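Reposting from the mailing list since nobody answered there.

I have sequence plus structure tokens for a pair of proteins and want to know whether others read the tokens the same way I do. The first protein:
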Amino acid sequence: MNDPRHRPRLVIVGSVNMDLVLRVPHQPKPGQTIRASDFAELPGGKGANQAVAAARLGAESIMIGRVGDDAFGGTLRSQLAGAGVQIDALQTTPGPSGVALISVDDDGQNAISIVAGANGRVSLDDVRAAESIIASADALLVQFELPIEVVAEAVTIAGRHEVMTIVDPAPAPPRGVALPEALYHVDVLSPNQTEAADLAGIEVDDLAGAERAARLLLQRGARCIVVKLGPDGALIVASEAPARHVPSITVEPIDTTAAGDAFTAAMAVALAEGEAIDSAVRFGCIAGALATTTLGAQPAMPMRQRVQSAMQQKTP
């Protein structure tokens, strides 16, 4: 992928968390106590992760959300600003910041529990007050760690101003729980395999299952579905062309926590720069793979030069 012809402007409406990360030999079973080998407080939250990734990949990155007035809140604000993210629209609200409890095992797999904190206080008024910011964007990124009606309103505002909309439906609602219609009428809907299965209401165990789920989601209004497949890359499904599988590169994973966030942000940056979807997804796959090689969420978001260098590698 070439260097950007212009610096794209990305607005991220999403969560900001402090991640409390444990390294464990394996995930504990119910009732089991195990010894963790390490502990760290690391900045996270799907929205903030994507904002940091976008900034490191060369975009003008603007964060809309809330942190608490606790000690975590001040740290989260300063770390976002230090990463190059614009935080003028990141508000501080009374009470605790969002927190994620993350255990990472020796295989790099994780288990995550989230306390919404200030993220649950992001309101319709917040995104409506930020309409001019959203309208100025080349692309809007949203996830589902905020109240769902707030996410839908952000997408509606972006659509009204013809801003590209990219939805990362994580965490996905349980099967049978309907999403607001606005969240399907987007430019790119990018679930992982589990989320695709939950949204479509079918099992997704292989590429064929991923395509079936994506075709069902297309019928609900999305222009393009990109199913994240972890180390196997991603699957692009749009109504006007056959499905395309985009492979990734082989890495030794340390922590998979924010790989999907790196993928989504990188894909969004490339699309906002005018790249075709296949090239943008390839860029996303590489960024996602590289993110698994570093412990933590935001610390793992790769710089653009590293992603471009890795793109020269042959895919498996």
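The second protein, same order (residues first, tokens after):
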Amino acid sequence: MSGLSISRVAAVIGEPARHSRSPAIHNAAFAATGIDWVFTAFEVPVGGGSAALEAMRVLQLAGLSVTMPLKVEVAEAADLRDDEVEVLGAANCIVPVGDGRLRAVNTDAIGFVAGLEADAGIGPDGIRVALLGGGGASRAVAWGLAAAGAVDVAVINRTPARAQAAAAIANATPRTGQPGRVGSIDDIAGADLVVNATSVGMGAGTSAHPGRTAHSRRSAMPCDPTLLSPGQVAVDLVYEPTETAWLAALRQRGVEAHNGLSMLAYQAAAAFELWTGVEAPVEVMRRAAVAGR
């Protein structure tokens, strides 16, 4: 590891970013592998993505993780874009490739699939999925599920265009309207896997629902938990709080339900390997994701 013992800085950018678990995850990985790097968080507001990439070049940062609201901006500002980024129109990872050039990558899809296999012991091959939400997270999950062989992905979202955009990525079925409409009820009840890719249920300290109180945000649910039954698997991409009201209700019904921490850890592991060229200590990163420190 002596060739990697050069102190460098990597970071997560976004808004909010100060309370991100990414520094804990990556710093644990650096310590476990003996890499003399440090990972921190920079608050960068909407509109600052391109400037952040210029700063990355000037400061010679080792890598950037990117969270909302900058994923689209950095994808557009990067010099190179992977296939996933071209399709999704968003990047969550920036990798220096030499000569000041920056490569935009999206590791969310691979992170979701790896997290699903780790938590639930299943892969997407041959399964039926109900995907709640039509935003960037939904598009990434749809891409990952389709690439890994899911036979049917129904995308359920109130906005038709967003549902159609996410569904098109997976050659899937777009559903418009609330998750309680008749067609959506059938999709949810008949799915092997139900995924909440919305911000519904996210805890205090977020700006996803600025018009609601912290309590109402935490108690909200993306769909009626009584639509699901034992034998199905549910994943809530929300991980703040680690147990949302939806997850708690599903577990009370005997439904196997998981939060988004494994996806967070596995997408970080993929980024770590891109930056360092070293195999990621995934279990160390998963424990740090859970502990948050």
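Reply #1 (J.P.):
I read it the same way you do. The first strand starts at residue 8 and ends at 14.
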